[in-house]
Amino acid sequence: MLELETSSVSVFENLESNVRSYCRSFPIHFCHAKGSLLQGENKKEYIDFLMAAGSLNYGHNNDYIKEQVLKYISNDGIIQGLDMYTQPKEEFISYMNETLLKPRGLDYKFMFCGPTGTNAVEAALKLARNVTKRTGVFSFMGGYHGMSLGSLSVTSCDSHRNASGVDLNNVTFIPYEDGYLKNFDSLNYIEALLNDTHSGASRPAAIILETVQAEGGVFAASKEWLVRLRQICDKYEIILICDDIQVGCGRTGTFFSFERANIQPDIVILSKSVSGYGFPMSMLLFKPELDIWKPAEHNGTFRGFQLAFIGGKAALEYYHNSNLEETMVSKSAKIERVLRDEIAPLNSLIEIRGIGMIWGIDFGKFNDVSIPGKITRRCFENGLIIESAGRKDTVIKLLPALVIDDETLDRALKILKEAIAWQLEQITTN
Hints:
The protein is an alpha/beta fold.
């Protein structure tokens, strides 16, 4: 592990829990951030391809969003409002409904949850079970949905699940499309489970999925597969939950990741970049007929964090006014071109996957699982913050800001390519 470049390392090592993780990979003090750049106390700049795990799609300290937030604070606006009626919440709901949902033909109720995505997953599972009066859930191998007990039950990673300390029940895991099991028809398998009286599986309350498995290694479901899944849920009266926490808010090239398949989930989970500025916020969108909640059946003190509503509305305004979807097309094409035409040819074992502004470079076919970690460390040394994901962390995941400028994007891809070439040369030399 790299050594922290400051004498205050003892504060973290002595007083902060061992559970800390990202700081182990990027062990310097960060003190300034703007756009796609982070600056450490060493005055060195780093291009951010992590973006707070997808919480900063619009970049660090986006000028437009910041202006709206500071204006609200300067006027002594309410900061914490529980779930009481406030102007920021009213404006956020109205603006999102009129400019985002209605034009897409989406008729959803809004529900604001605790401040993190996992709380919204918990709410979605509770709602689906209460509506259907069924307890089981189908989830997918490779899926990541959070770290609290309910969301952890539908998360597949052993290392996460084992830390729960209790059994995680009532979930059946299904292979994802073209994921770990190649050429396996997972949707036929689902129907077999539902129709076979000897399958041992009962009809679930819900099926939960990410249309792009981000932490699972950047596997993007096809349009056809998503349409078939929607049809199965309709046929068997199963609630379809789309977890758009990391790959929503424009990450896949459209605001919602499921738009490319022209489907409508019954429940949509949003968090991370929905607040626009990195403020804690999570929410559900769900079909009106599912709204059987009794008052306070699911609540959370910070579901009324007003700065998140201010930032969220400003982010939607920025999204529309800057024609972000159009500008992302060329950036996505550039990333894909470099990955497929310049990086993949470095070794035939490298696999490239992705969509929009999320891409993965898979080194899983190599015998040495330490390769991605060595590459990401080399990138960090050269000024690029990038993480690995997937099984055994063999996939380097690209998660740049949606607003990254072309020059910065070119520099980042150059650093990444050099690091990969360097590591492959080390393998050959040794």
